Every structure is written in structure tokens, then in C-alpha cells.
Amino acid sequence: MLLLLPLAITWFGAVALAPFDGRRRAVGVVAVGVMVAAFVALVRLGITVWTSGPVEMVAGDWPAGIGIRLRADGLGIAFALISLGVLLAALAYEVLGGVHERSLPSLVLFMSTGLTGVFLTADIFNFYVFFEIAMTASFVLATYGKQVGHLRAALTFMVVNLLGSVVFLAGVASLYHVTGTLDMDGVAERVNGAPTASVLLIAVLIFVAFGLKLGLFPFHSWVPLVYRDTWPAVAAMLSAALANIGSYGLLRFGAGLMPRELSLTASGLIVIGSLGILYGAIQAVSPRTAGEVIAWSSIGQVGYILVALGIGGPVGLTAAVLYSIINSLNKLVLFLAVGLRGWLVGTAFALAAFSVAGVPPSAGFFGKVAIFRAGADADRVPLLVLVVVGGALSLIYLFRIYQRDYWARNHAAPPSPLGARVLVLVLACGIVFIGLWPEPLLALSANAAAALTGGGS
Amino acid sequence: MILALALVISVLFGCGAFLLLKRDLIRMAGGIILISNAANLFIVSAGLSRGREPIYPLPAGERISDPVVQALVLTAIVIGFGTVAVLLGMIYRTYTARLAKAVDEGDETGRTPMSMPPEDRVAD
Questions:
Q1: Which residue of B has its CA nearest to A159?
Q2: C-alpha span between A57 and A69 (Å, rounded)
Q3: Tell me: the pLDDT tens digits for A11-25?
Q4: Domain housing B21
Q5: Which of A90-94, A197-201, B60-64 has the lowest mean pLDDT?
Q6: Is the CB of A155 less than 8 angstroms away from the CB of B91?
Q7: Which residues, at least 6 apart from A34, have a Cβ–Cβ distance to it below 8 Å?
Q8: Whole-angstrom distance, CA of residue A151 vs CA of residue A231
Q9: Residue B81 falls inside a structural domain
Q10: Is A90 exposed, middle or buried (0-12, 13-18, 19+ CB in 10 A)?
Q11: Which residues does A117 contact at the CB level (< 8 Å), separation at least 6?
Q12: Are A161 and A211 in contact (CB under 8 A)?
């Protein structure tokens, strides 16, 4: 019951709010309230998971092995919390700034249902279904604004991601063919009995699908196009919440279901990730609009996650989880700040920029340290150099935006709503706060990584 | 049977990918439809086995065909149908938005309003 609560709250909230005009402030406030309730329910579930191990239920009281399982463990809870938190912040930001379209609040709630479901399911086909719920909501959200530019971005986003979904569906069907089950534990158990060559092919299919979602280096071409033209709050939702499906999927399917194939391809993943870090950072120095710079930056940032996944082991997986969470927070603040003007927002942007670069009093520092430590443990010296160079480059490109957008201030632009500006500043201070007191987040990531390798909860 | 299905899937996917690369939005939607149907066929072929219908009471000693893939493909078809509906809605929206923009600005790009909107850089 505890497990269904966060899903049910957002889903019923979304259905109930769908007929109402989201542009009315009251509807927006109710939607934020529903999100807060779902977040509290998720935290409650999280406390149970952290203290007494994974929570599990089989839908419809079927015997285990036949019914579809829902399961909350450390990894799922960590990703669900960060994604729901990001959506909550972005929705509150949009409500404070004034919603432009009637469907926005209920779409955000639908997306939260899909995302929470993805992170809490233990069935690979159910994973696909929740994933499509989140994706369909995001396709419509991407058109938010309804200008030609927004629509073009939404179309590109939709076509690329539909292709990714088809590839993932093919991967799921092949996994079923090879193992004869859709249950994650069953797949993990039986996949080792299957021939390596065919499982490797499936692993590549699934890697391509999640790489597309996440905007990893060779599959990144849609990212700058889409994030340049979508509305800032929507770009924050897509890149900081929806893209988590990609990193979670890589961790769950790679390290959780197919660890043998992951270790076979580890060096390849590290090379792809490193190329992504360099390519993203170098490309981010040249473009002119802030959205594009952050998009290229995010291509570089997800490279770190892939590198950490490639290094593997408890240290590497902890680093991957930690980096995904911190990366989500950074992108949330950066994208929200881009949509506003004023010195409050400038400060928030600068704080998030320092966090991306990994300057000490911010959360990003601990993300970089975790990657650094994983690299040092694995004796990969070039990787250590890469972390430092990537950080330095990110300072350069982000402060170029800062210089252009916040120093050369355009006084003709109308001032942004105070509430939204304060919210962004509070979020940015949250990043610094996590940097000052990182222990809870570090423990949460270690717990999540332990859930993958079988130890802990 | 497997060979025939594999051929059909590859032809469907190939045609879909070809259409997807067109500028024309309706052809693009057609490509998506073909590709998602190729995926549906792929699911069916993943659990292809000859046997009796899986309905209780099961006949003893006979092979039973796998009912799970049927359920999976049914779900996938429904989801695919929904996404294609959203895609067509979005294409229509793009069409009207571009038409409105063309009327407003006297847009003379020489493209039909049904093609992918041109790249106009966001001014900074």
C-alpha cells in the first residue's frame, strides 16, 4: 500500500486536474500541493526502505513469479526522490511565474506518475509502460509555448525518442525471448545461462535506447536542438527529471541485470564517456544561446556518469548515482535561471555554475571527488586529468553565459516575477547546503549502489 | 515462419526508416507508424511457438502457445496508437502555427507548411 501511494496520488491528481484550466492560479497551486503530498509519501516509503530493506508487492495478489511486481529499493527511491523533487520545483517555478497553457499542471503530474512508476517497478515490460507514460506527457509538454520554435523542438524530441522507445521495446522482447521471464530478478538470474553473444547484442540495444534518452555522446545530436528551443522550465523537466530514466536504466539494466556484459564492455564505455566529456565541453564553448551551451554541457556531464558506470564496483556505482543526482540539481537551477533576469538569478546561476565545475563549497565538488576516487582506485591516470580539464572547461563556458546575460544587462527586458527568482535562489543555496553537509547524500548513493550489487538494502 | 517474419520486420523497419528521414511531416509520421509496427511484429516473433490456445482447461500432453507475448503486443499496439495520435496532433499544430506565421510575416521560404519548420536562430 505504501508503495502504491506516491503513484496513486499523482495519477488521481492528474486525472482530477485534467478538465480544469491550468492557467488559473488555484489549479496550479492544487497541482503543487498534490506533488508535495506525493513527495512526502515517497519520503515515507524511503524511510521504510532505508531502515528495513526493500518494500515489495505483487499486483492483484497473484502468486510471486506470475503477477507483476512493484519493488522499492535504495536505487529506485534515490532516483524517484530526485526526479519528483525536480518536477515539483519546476512546476512551482512555472506557477509562480504564471502558467501559459491549460494542460501544464496535469501533464506534469502524469509525468511524475510515469517517472515514479519507472523507478519503482520490478518488471521490464512494466518499466516500458511507465516509461511511455512519462514520455507521452513529455512530448506534449515540449510543445509548451506553441511557437513554431517550440513545436519544431517538440517534433524533433518526439521522433528521436519514439525511435529510442522502439529500440528499447525490441531489447525487452529479446530479453523475454532469451530468459522466458519479464521479472527483473528472474532475468538477472537466467540471463547468465544464455549465450554471451546474444545477450551482448541485447545489451547494446538497451544501451543505445538509454543513451538516446540521456543524450550520451554518439546519440546526442537532438539535445542542443531541443534544449535551445523549449521553454526553460520544460527544458529543466526534460533534462533534469526525464533524462534520469536514461541513467537509472543504464544502472539497473547494466549493473543490475547484465553485470557480465557490463564488465565485458567496461573499457568501451569508459572510452565513449571520456570522448563525450571532452566533446561536450569543447562544443559548449562556442554557441551563443544559453540553452545551447547548457545542452552541450549536459552531454559532457552525462559522460562522467558513463565513465563511473564503466569503472563499476561499489565505488564506481556510488559515484554514478551521486553524479546523476547532483547533475540533475545543477541542470535544474541552470535552466530555470536562464529563463529569468536580475541579480538574484545571476547569483543562483553562478552558484550552479561553480557546482558544475566542481568548486569546493558546492555539491558538484563531491560528485567530482567521487569520480576522481573511482578513477584513482582503478588506476586510470588519464581519467583524473580528464576530470580536471572537464571542470576547467565548464567554468569557461558557463561564465561566458554569465558575462553575456547577467553583466551586459538588458534593461529593456521586463523584470521577472519575484517569487520565481527567489525560488531559483533557494534551490541554488540548496546545492551549496548539500556541499556543506554532504553526508546524507553520500549515504543515500552508497545505499543505492549497494542495492545493485546485492548487499545492503 | 521465423524467416518470413524476419523478412517482413526488416522490410517494414527499412521503409519506416526511409520515410522518417524525409522533411515532409506526414511521411515522417508514416515512418514512425511502420517502425512501431515492425517492433510489434518483433515482439510476436520473440515468443513464437506452435501450440493450442492457452485457455483453461488445458489439454494434457499438448504444446501450449505462449500467451504472454500476445498480452505484451496488445499493450504495445495500444501505446503505439496513442503516441501516433499525439504525433498527428502535433503535426497539425505545427501546420497551423506555420500557416499563421507565414500569413503574418509573408514567409516566402518556398516550402510547404507541412515540412519541418526551418531553422531560425533564437535572437539573443
A1: B32
A2: 6
A3: 999 999 888 888 888
A4: 8-51+63-105
A5: B60-64
A6: yes
A7: A9, A10, A13, A17, A109
A8: 11
A9: yes
A10: buried
A11: A7, A126, A129, A130, A133, A134
A12: no
Domain definitions of chain A by residue range: 280-457
Which amino acid belongs to residue A61? D
A132 contacts in chain B (CB < 8 Å) = 79, 83
CA distance A348 to chain B (A): 21
Say which amino acid occupies B89.
G
Name residue A259's amino acid.
Answer: P
Identify whether the C-beta of residue A177 lies closer than 8 Å to the C-beta of residue B47.
yes
Average pLDDT, chain B: 81
Q: Which residues pair with B115 in a beta bridge?
A: B24
Number of Cβ atoms within 10 Å of the Cβ of A54: 18
CATH code of the domain covering residue B28: 1.10.287
The answer to whether A152 contacts B46, with C-beta atoms less than 8 Å apart, is no
Whether the per-residue pLDDT at A114 is higher than 90: the answer is yes
CB contact B124 to A (< 8 Å): yes
Q: Which residues of A395-422 are buried (b: 16+ CB within 10 A; e: fewer)?
A: eebbbbbbeebbeeeeeeeeebeeebbe
Number of structural domains (chain B) is: 1
**Residue A71, SS3 per DSSP:** strand
- CA distances in angstroms from A112 to A122, A138, A393, listed in the order given: 18, 10, 34
CA angle at A353 for the pair A248 and A283, rounded to the nearest 5°: 75
